[in-house]
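Q: What would this chain look like folded?
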Amino acid sequence: MGSLHCVGMCGPIAFMLPVSQNNKYKKAGQVFIYHFGRLMAYGIIGLLFGLLGKGLYLFGIQQKLSILIGVLMILIVILPYKYLNKASLSKPVYRIIGKIKSSLGLALKKKTSDTFLTIGFLNGFLPCGLVYMALLGAIGMGNAFEGSLYMILFGLGTVPLMTAAVYLGGVLKDSTKHRIRQLIPVFIIIIGVLFILRGLGLGIPYVSPKPMAEVVSTEIECH
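A: My prediction, written as structure tokens:
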């Protein structure tokens, strides 16, 4: 669902990749390395945010955290952007982002073997609303490995259209992109609702399982 958003935000980088135009196998390898770099970046930040979630889990607030993440996802979608912008939540990292963009610009001018890995890796750290949503999900995993895996799977979901952006350029019509972009907020709200349900522990298998402490207590009473 987020792939078209990614093409809109990061498509220009994909269009500018210094891929080989004469050798299709070399080109495919270069595109693969670019995606590998992106997934590596997502995996690292997923690991860090998963560790954050684990720390909160150890404090015994995992369910409350899941509800909070779900509420935040929904609020970010329904609140007008001007109110979110006033919060200036991202200002402290603008300087770091500027350095990433500068490094990315330099990498795009090179054609060495490590260029595509560098471009992909730096691309993964660029600010993106959908990445922020995914990071909330990584925190909700409450586990470093699962947080990392969550972000890698998120990245894999963007691979098909980002690859198409490299090979086909602007094939999709703007009207089609606009329609699918309109569905993205709905998709995020659904994920937010699922996080809230998980936090409520209603006893619904896979969707809202009961808290582990409650399950253990029930088993002890049965014996």
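The chain has a mean pLDDT of 76.
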